[in-house]
Structures are given as C-alpha cells and as structure tokens.
Amino acid sequence: MLLKEILKDKGTVVRCISPEFTLDEAVAELVCHNIGALLVGDVGRSIQGIITERDMLRTQNAHRETFGKLRVAEVMSKNLITASPEDHIETAMGLMTEHRIRHLPILCEGQLCGIVSIGDIVKAQHSELERENNAMRSYIQGESI
User: Fold this and answer.
1) Tens digits of residue pLDDT in 116-133
2) All structural domains of the chain
3) Of the residues 6, 30, 58, 123, which has the fewest C-beta atoms closer than 10 A?
C-alpha cells in the first residue's frame, strides 16, 4: 500500500500554526482539532517545522512557570522527516520507527500535500489485513463447497 492511498482515504487537510503563536495557543489548536501535531508555517508557502504533543509535554516539564508564554518557534522540531505519496507504507513505518516520530509530513514535488500519523498507518494496515482475511475465507469456502 502506498501513502497516497492513506491520504485519499483520510484527506489532505493539514493544520498549521505560526511560529510566533504561544504554546497556550498551540495547545488550544491541538485540542480544538483533536490532533497530535501542528506543522509550523504556511501550507502554501514554507513549512519551518513541526510541534507535537510530546514537544509540549517536555517543554512543560522543563519550563513550568513560563510554558504558556513560550513561542512555538522556541519549541518546534526544525529537522522535518518527510515522505512522498509514492512511498510504501513499510517505508513510512521504518522512518517513523527509526526517528521515533508519530507524524510524517508528505511532500509532493517539494510541496506539502498531507500528513500521516502512526494511527493512520495502523488503521491502513488493519484494513489491509481484514481484506486479505476476507479474501482467504472466501477462497477457502469456495474450495470446500
């Protein structure tokens, strides 16, 4: 299965936030959209990084007093690990495991075209296994009749 198939099912909407926003504002965006990561920058222009729940938890632990006032730019991960829509799901799983990340931005010819999470990948793998299981059952039942 290719990542473009996951994007086809889940959609290509990607939530972004300005690097100048505070962490309080970033938390509000995550909660509002029920997501675990925000890309930092503008979808149509440049993506400067990513900020995740994990980034914010680590920051909150280290900066309890000033957490809400810190800017996204101070906390975001700047070295983005990305994939292509033509990459296989196994490639994405390998990248996510190797880099210990849970969100993978997808770039089409250098432009952002979506994002997949580890949850999206597990869901796609589960659906694929169900399809294979049903096909096997149909085959076996057809052979038994």
Assistant:
1) 999 999 999 998 888 888
2) 3-144 (3.10.580.10)
3) 58
